[in-house]
Amino acid sequence: MQADAVLDARGLLCPMPIVKLSQKIKTMDSGQVLEVQADDKGAAVDIPAWCQKTGNIYLGSEAGSNYTSYYVKKS
C-alpha cells in the first residue's frame, strides 16, 4: 500500500504508538495515508480502535518480519 508519510513507532510500548500517531496525523491533510510501523502487539487492537473513536479510516495492515505496518487514512 502506498503511504504519504511513515511513522516509525518500533520499540515503543502502549500507549506511545497511539500518542505518536495522533500527533503525526494532525500534521497531514485530509485524504492522506499514514503508515505506522509498530512492533508492539497491542497496536493491532489499539490502532483500529483509535481510528473508530476519532473518525479516521483504518485501511488494514501488512505483517513484516520484525514489525507490522498499519495504514490510516486521515478523514
UniProtKB/TrEMBL annotation:
Its EC number is 2.8.1.-. Keywords: Transferase. Residues 7-31 form the UPF0033 domain. Belongs to the sulfur carrier protein TusA family. It comes from Neomoorella thermoacetica. This is Sulfur carrier protein TusA. Pfam families: TusA (PF01206). One of its GO terms (molecular function) is transferase activity. It comes from the Bacteria. The keyword Transferase applies.
